[in-house]
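Worked example 4.2. Below are the chains of a multi-component assembly; read each line carefully before continuing.
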Amino acid sequence: MSEEVKNLNKEKDVKAPGIQANDLKLKPIPEGSHLLEVDDLKMYFHTRDGIVRAVDGVSYTLDPGETLGVVGESGSGKSVTVMTIMGLIQMPPGKIEGGDVRYRGQSLLKMSSKEMEAIRGNDIAMVFQDPMSSLNPVYRIGKQVGESLRIHRGYTKKQAMERAIELLDMVGIPNPDQRVKDYPHQFSGGMRQRVMIAMALSCDPDILIADEPTTALDVTIQAQIIELMKEMQKRNGNAIIMITHDLGVVADMADKIMIMYAGRPVEFGTADQIFYEPIHPYTWGLHNSIPEQTIDEKKPLTPIKGNPPSLIDLPAGCPFAPRCPYAKQICFDKKPEKYTDETGHYSFCHFADDKDFIRAHQPETSRTNPNILRGPASAGSQSASKTATGGEQ
Amino acid sequence: MKYELAEDYVAPQENALEASKDSTKPQRTLWGDAFRRLRRNKLALIASVWIIFVVIIALSADLWVPQTFGSPTDIDSSTSAARSLLPPRIKGLENLGIFDGTTDKKNLTTGEMEHINVYQVNAEKYPNSGVQDEYHPFGTDLLGRDVMSRIIYGSRISLSVGLLATSIAVLIGLIMGAVAAYYGGIWDVLIMRLADIFLAFPYVLFVIAVLAVFGPGFQNVFLAIGILGWPSIARVFRSAILSVKENDFIDAARAMGAGDWRIIVRHIFPNSVATIIVYATMSIGGAILTESALSFLGMGVQPPTPSWGYMISDGKTYLSTAPWLMMCPGLAILSTVLAFTVLGDGLRDALDVKMKDA
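Applying the procedure described above to all two chains together yields the following structure tokens:
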């Protein structure tokens, strides 16, 4: 993000009416820290069947205006990680077994529930997966969009309603001054997700966490919602943590991507590194399982064989070893160490530093094989993607 | 294969669709919908009309009842003998041969049953009482008080005990149920086991025991019924909250920075209010019934304040000679309790959002 946007953001924050003087987002980020630092976070659930290691050593950093994509299959701990950051996990059964989460240098895990309430929705806001059930069915849209402002900024009902109309207009709801009087069931799924985004952005949060915001929507609406989030990010300068199980969703959105598997990060890098130079066999598997319609429609999908392990009873070695086509004996015996290269691109694999191994198995990308993008149907795919986002203009 | 778009192709806009079903149509609200559905339920409509009727009569009683039917409590010693145990007599129905003030009475001298008009007989016996011109639609009791007047004033007791006791029970039940369901864990165990203990006692016996300690009287009656009535409401409300709590919008509210109190009051309550309204409406009937039972047993509102239960108890001695003494307050209890139950049932259907039938 450019310096310009950052300054704009700061200025707007201070001027914002009703903003609390002790609001954390007005404080400068301490030297040497990031906006958000998740440091070796471990969240275990103590159940009758045993300890579920839902999040087991997740680390990442986020800077203002950045987008982090968190990708993984169901049960890989993506949601639990952000729910932990937001303090939304019921404890017990959940328990933080280690690590820390720092927002502007302050540990969120050490905060009282009152302090966390002041941060939730105000500095860190969240958009949920299912827009159909994330809005309270008994309140009018306007009231719900303005609720954050009433909580955090002490707006009057009238001020909150006026701001709600502006926000709904901003996220592209037509007739906002009429629609604020509607109930959620009068909105379509895509519209409700726009409302959710308006709600989340109402207090100018530093970080917007989107937990699979497009999973419950159909493809054209998905594209519109992603487009909207990017546009809002440009306007507000907020950072985004985008959780998804769809690599395609983060492809043209994320600056950094973390791939998670069985509660752990397996690979972390910039979007380019994850897409063009992936070094973990699981990431390769994900790439290979993307349908390559542009090359050959008849080609069967190549799934990753097997199922993720139970989080209660993890294998002794690398958790991916039982499904990894390249697993050696060491993979079953020993947990892999974190391998980080000079750019910060890291991977948990015994062979992460073995250049020959990687070169031999890394999937083909448009960078390693330029023919991919010049395939016979590439022109068609481009116009199709235009259609998908066309509704935004 | 190529996917080419026509030159003049315009991507369909989601917004355009939404905009077309513009906001000119009248706003529909949850309560508006519920009222519309309730209106279509004939039985519930009759019940609510009846309840409104009873409430209006009870509230306006002071303005017209004593003048029309006579005082519900005062006994005029000079004329009470003349007015004692008069059968129902309604103006305008006399010529039809019903409610004309006649009854079968045993002639004390001959020992035979006679069909006589008590109003005329008493007027002959007490020439100055003016009884022959009086109309008591529900008859009179032993002391010459008008039963209609007593039933109307008794409705004040029944309705206020019903409402007050239910309000107290709902208030306690809501707090207990909310704490049990929302905080769970040890709170849930403690509160629900306490509720089990309360429910293990026979309810009326429990209330009688409490009243035996604190003494009878209007205030103690509704306090006792209300305070002892919370466990069932707490149970119903707890389960309602448990199901609402699972919804994503509760998580969304928490993610928005709403505190526990705000989530309970602003997000959970409104979503379980339908259950509570239905249950509370039905409990009003139950509380009226309990109050009647207590008064019947002499533990309720004390005479001379008229109370339906006490009137039944008072009239049971004359069941064969003056059946109206029991029947009229009995019908009053029956109709009112039934009305609250039917209304509660209708409300359940009306407030059920899942029954989205047009």
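Take a moment to check your reading of the output against the notes. Chain A touches chain B through 53 residues (CB under 8 Å). Chain A has 14 helices and twelve strands.
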